[in-house]
Amino acid sequence: MNAIIFPGQGAQKLGMSKDFYDSFQVSRDVFDCASEASGLNLAKLIFEEEDKLNLTEYTQAALVTAELAIVEALKSEGLISKDFCSVTAGLSLGEYSSLVLAGAMSIYDASALVRKRGIYMQEAVPAGKGSMAAVLGMDPTEIEKVLSGIHGAWIANYNSTDQTVITGLKEDVEFASGALKAAGAKRVVPLAVSGPFHSPLMAGAGRKLAAELEKVKIAAPTIPYVANVTASYVHEAEEIKQLLEKQVSSSVRFVESVENMTAHGVNTFIEIGPGRTLSKLVNKIAPHAATVNVSTVADMEKLKV
Fold first, then answer.
1. Active-site residue among 27, 38, 92, 177?
2. Do residues 6 and 90 both lie within one domain?
3. Are residues 103 and 182 part of one domain?
4. How far, in Å, CA of 223 to CA of 84, rounded?
5. pLDDT of the residue at 305
6. Residue 195 placed within a domain
7. CA–CA separation, 129 vs 135, rounded Å?
8. CATH code at 25?
9. Active site (annotated) includes residue 235
10. Where among 190, 220, 240 does a domain terminate?
């Protein structure tokens, strides 16, 4: 059984999906639709404007566009379908690409939403007040114990069995980093991000996003997807808006998500988008599962039987 998964912010790179844009009309159509919905010239942004590409308010629309341009090309070639894909999931921002593939949301609505999501998350905490760091080589339950005594630091992402991301106020994340190293973490690496994402400090951004979610049509997924907040399969439209509101301020439960998918019989994870971020995490969480990444036109051969 196959799962299709999508990376989130941090995976973006200049020129991502350009060969799909150059090779497939359906991919260019995604760029046109997303540009109209977001009010951005996404081809120019993704192919030429690296400085903007790495700013949260632009990154989110750009990465979802690049991922969906690949999806539509794969669909047009008959390489992915409902029968081929048993379930889909995305890491944080990637959940929006997942929802489009699942049939729960249109490309236009997803593009408009992630443009607003990026702005709201950028604005939620003043620049320089928040930060994030990756904790390597420490059990998540031990990290939770250390953080329980620190008011302004939380777990953002349960990425793999030996990689967990913490988030919060800059001074609290710095204090937590020292405490985690003292408690046995192999390394704690500050991340180049512009805010304390997936922390309670993002609750205001979630409330603003909820108002935008009320304006769009959400359908029941035709392919089940696994939500970041619960790591559970979602089959009903009613759950999705609440989950997306909570997602910006809640921990991303990627480890549990992968474990849940493998428990349901998934044995191959296909990562769509730039790089192999999620494939590497899956290799650690479920070492017996196969991973495939599709980020270039040449990678399409990997899906041909």
1. 92
2. yes
3. no
4. 10
5. 63
6. no
7. 20
8. 3.40.366.10
9. no
10. 190
